[in-house]
Amino acid sequence: MGGMTNGTVLVTGASRGIGAAIATRLAQDGYGVVVNYAQDAEGATSVVREISQAGGRAAAVQADVADAGQVAAMFEKAGAFGEPLVGLVNNAGSIGQEAPMADQRPDALARLVQTNVVGPALCAKHAIRAMSTKHGGTGGSIVNLASVAGHTGGLPHLVPYAATKGAVIAMTKGLASEVAEEGIRVNSVSPGIIDTEMSARPSARQIAETSPMGRMGHPGEVAAAVSWLVSNNASFVTGTDLTVSGGR
Can you give the CATH number for the domain in which 154 is found? Predict the structure, then answer.
């Protein structure tokens, strides 16, 4: 990658799973990557080490996306590489409380919405200010991680999670229209069941086996979709949700 610089992309929730795969892929693409994490410092450090050893540029930054102050501080640190911010990948998310709606706790619902909807909105707010051509930025791309659940209503006992992902898909479409004239594209990726810790329940594997392709997806397959949407190869694509689900 000798000296190649494509600017910086911030990836939230990048210490493991899909987020780690996205961060690694974007580093391979030549971006400086800000690897955000909420609690898993060890995981984030490991992702940064792996990227650095492969000749890429990465830095770990702690912030809970549900906390406005921490998000603001994170974006101030995003200038670590002295390059303009050109991308945000809103990947951080929670699955919430696994329970029927009748048993959902109010505090769990509030926390889920704060993390999965307010968090991406707060991150988008700061990314737009940094990337908008109206504010002296170079333009850029925002990719929101939604879910097939946002279209289908999702798995049993995870209705609130599906609701937050439906909100992310709507936010993507509305925001794409709002910032198109500022040189910023906004798209979402809706993974199906991907083989990560988050889907490590027997029911998930059974459901994946009934999909047309008959298997779970791999984090790298989601990362490839994100890589394309961040890149200039997707220069005329905005307001779109790309489903990565093996046909479900």
Answer: 3.40.50.720
Residue 57: what are its φ and ψ, rounded to 5°? Answer: -120, 125
Give pLDDT tens digits along the chain (248 positions).
Answer: 344 468 999 999 999 999 999 999 999 999 999 999 999 999 999 999 999 999 999 999 999 999 999 999 999 999 888 999 999 999 999 999 999 999 999 999 999 999 999 999 999 999 999 999 999 999 999 999 999 999 999 988 999 999 999 999 999 999 999 999 999 999 999 999 998 876 777 777 888 888 899 999 999 999 999 999 999 999 999 999 999 999 88
The residue among 24, 23, 65, 16 whose CA lies nearest residue 41 is: 16
Q: What is the pTM of this model?
A: 0.95
Residue 37 designated active-site: no
**Contact (CB, 8 A) for 58 and 15:** no
> Residue 63 domain-assigned?
yes
Domains identified in the chain, total number: 1
Tokens of 167: 């909100």
> Residue 226 is part of which domain span?
8-244
Residue 183 counted as domain residue: yes
Amino acid at residue number 72: A
Q: Choosing from 18, 43, 161, 194, which is the catalytic residue? A: 161
Residue 123 lies in a domain: yes
